[in-house]
Amino acid sequence: MTGTIRLWSAISVIGAMALLGACEKKSPAPAPAGGGGTPAASAPGEITIGHYGSLTGAQATFGKSTDNGIKLAVKEVNAAGGVTVAGKKYTIRLVSEDTEGKPEKAGTVVTKLITKDKVVCVLGEVASSVSLQGAPVCQEYGVPMITPSSTNPDVTRVGDMIFRVCFIDPFQGEACAKFARGELKAAKVAVLFDQASAYSVGLKDEFNKAFKAAGGEIVSEQAYTQGASDFNAQLTRIRESTPDAIFIPGYYSDVTNIALQSRKLGMKMPLLGGDGWDSEELGKNAGEAIEGCFYSNHYAPDQPTAEIQAFVSKYKADFGGVPDGLAALGYDGARLLFEAMGRAKSLSGTDLRDAIGQTKGFKGVTGAITLNDHRDAVKNVVMVERRGGQWVFRASIEPK
Ligand code: PHE
Questions:
Q1: Nearest to residue 72, comparing CAs of 265, 259, 318, 370?
Q2: I need a labelling partner for 325 at 20 to 30 A (CA). Which of 7, 138, 381, 383 fits?
Q3: Domain extents for the chain?
């Protein structure tokens, strides 16, 4: 960890505490229920876990899908008798908190989960900029955090308590660049990114680097701010640079507006994006404007493997729609946690951290998950294409 990151994490934690209006003392990781002291908020024989996510706001489908995936995993583990930790059986209780997708909410809700609900582990967030605010709080309290889907490398660099079950953006950016160059045969690409998002800026940089290395040219680089409604100025400049494709590493609500406005300007080239496009809202609201476009993701629900199809039908039965990548990663993150609990010496933060860190070849819906020394998963990137009003599997790109 660098000095800068350490200083910045301390500031975040102090900020979170100030927001709570009190300087609560750091509590040690909660003891197992019924063991050396029952955690205040858990009933005997019960383990409480937390989830913080965008249950409302501009990225609401991210948080809701993740929450559904986690709920399905909790339901299944409890139906199977719960988890056994050091010879004792427990059921799992989930407490979910809404961040509204706002980085500035993360410190408060994560502090609440840890100090009031006494969670032994925190799942979340989706958006890297929000996880970057929640992670220092988990690190400071010594409670492990598993982000299902934040791909910015800096998230797990916050400290040894922070894990993820997804790939990171250097690989995602490279996969998109290879796809643009190799499959789409694009020579000139323009980039339109969200300047306030750690995810968007990071993914843009990685894409640019890899696309140039593959012999391509970045002909225009334009910035926007999340929630903007008019992209005409940036799109007009991009149009002048006559790109073969536009790379937009943003979130689905902004991408919807960008797609609609670009087509109004007569721009017909394919749009390309990262996992932040993953929401049924994009296809629903952008319609024709998004036909023939591509994005990279963590899984594709139309892949015919037994694991994926079993998950899709269980999810449909409970929540009534096709699970997106967020739902699959939420499910995998929670199940990986329960598996790690079964191997942990106790539910203390450090024992749980060690067990999570030793995860190898865990069979997830999104692929086999092995955590590396940086507490990141090394997995395939899946490219999907919008064809006939559906997102269809197009390619799988293997990590090196
Ligand atoms: N990877 C994105 C981020 O780090 C979040 C995301 C993951 C969005 C998966 C959609 C699907 O900000």
A1: 318
A2: 138
A3: 10-167+307-380, 169-297
Instruction: State in Å: Cα 88 to ligand 1 middle.
Output: 36
Neighbours of 388 (CB within 10 A): 6
* Ligand 1 pocket list (CB less than 6 A): 62, 126-128, 149-152, 199, 275-276, 278, 325-326
Same fold, 10-167+307-380 and 169-297: yes
pLDDT tens for the chain, 400 residues long, are 333 444 444 444 444 444 443 434 344 444 444 334 444 567 779 999 999 999 999 999 999 999 999 999 999 999 999 999 999 999 999 999 999 999 999 999 999 999 999 999 999 999 999 999 999 999 999 999 999 999 999 999 999 999 999 999 999 999 999 999 999 999 999 999 999 999 999 999 999 999 999 999 999 999 999 999 999 999 999 999 999 999 999 999 999 999 999 999 999 999 999 999 999 999 999 999 999 999 999 999 999 999 999 999 999 999 999 999 999 999 999 999 999 999 999 999 999 999 999 999 999 999 999 999 999 999 999 999 999 999 999 999 999 7
- The alpha carbon of 278 and the centre of ligand 1 are apart by a number of angstroms equal to 8
Which residue, by CA, sits nearest to atom 8 of ligand 1? 276
CA of 129, closest atom in ligand 1:
12
In the chain, alpha helices (H): 3-20, 60-79, 103-115, 128-141, 154-157, 169-178, 198-213, 232-240, 252-264, 280-286, 306-319, 325-343, 349-357
Q: Which CATH number fits domain 10-167+307-380: 3.30.70.360, 3.40.605.10, 3.30.565.10, 3.40.50.2300?
A: 3.40.50.2300
> Whose alpha carbon is nearest atom 11 of ligand 1?
275
Fold adopted by 169-297:
Rossmann fold (3.40.50)
Nearest in space to 138 (alpha carbons), one of 306, 349, 304: 349
Q: Which ligand 1 atom sits closest to the C-alpha of 200?
A: 12
User: How many angstroms is it from 60 CA to the middle of ligand 1?
Assistant: 12
H helix or E strand, kind and range, residue 396: strand 390-397
